[in-house]
Write a structure and sequence with these properties.
By secondary structure, this protein is mainly α. The termini are far apart. The model has no long low-confidence stretch (mean pLDDT about 90).
């Protein structure tokens, strides 16, 4: 929704849509309750989340976003949420519960 809500640079708009589509695909492929195809182990999904979060935190430096710009603020906010979510999620606990659900 960020490209719709904020006046972002066209390249950042595209990156947001690609990131959202990729995240949806990974979610659908993850072995957890919301996954449909369940090909990616839940802990691997977690590592992908962490790497994405770290990349988003680094993006303003790599792409020279202006200080105070919507692009910089969005990147840092999404990166921080991804990293914090990674730290508060029990990635192995979800895997254990999925194994018991399958009986």
């Amino acid at each position: 929704m960020a490209p719709i809500m904020f006046d972002l640079e066209p390249a950042v708009d595209t990156a947001c849509f690609v990131l959202a589509g990729g995240y949806l695909l990974i979610t659908l492929l993850t072995d957890f309750k919301l996954g449909i195809f369940r090909l990616i182990p839940f802990p691997v999904h977690g590592w992908l989340d962490l790497l994405t979060g770290l990349a988003l935190l680094a993006a303003p430096f790599l792409f020279h976003f202006e200080a105070g710009s919507a692009e910089r603020n969005l990147s840092w906010m999404l990166g921080a949420v991804s990293v914090i979510t990674w730290f508060v999620t029990d990635w192995k606990g979800q895997t254990r519960s999925m194994m018991t659900d399958r009986g």
